[in-house]
Amino acid sequence: MMLMNNTIMNTLATMAAANDEYPRARLAAALVKNNKIISFGINRKKTDPLQAKFGKNKDSIYLHAEIHAIKNALRDYTYSDIVGAKLYVCRVKRPSETSKKWTWGMARPCEGCARAIVEFGISNVVYSIDKMGCYEVI
Known about the structure:
It is built from 5 helices and 6 strands. It has helices at 2-18, 49-54, 65-76, 79-82, 111-119; strands at 26-33, 36-42, 86-93, 103-105, 124-128, 135-137.
């Protein structure tokens, strides 16, 4: 399981780094059910009704990676299919303004995303922390 966690988190780190739509905070997420990735999501400078529903406040309108992954899963799967899935979230950041390299950052879901995680019955969350290659599981 640890190898799978590492593989998925490294894939998400690569996806997040490639997301130049949101230069400051780059996040990517994946929903996994029965050891199969069922959807991906990235944070977007785009509004969405599902994000509005779970936003932590009325100004929290931009699509979070976690909500985007859930939204994308709902295209091909039902709510029942998502229940029990595991959510992976990885954030990348530059250690300094002049650095060209990316490092992992804290990607603990915000209050709004945490509500969505509970509502959709997601069983576990694996998120990156401020140490390259390290993550926590809740």
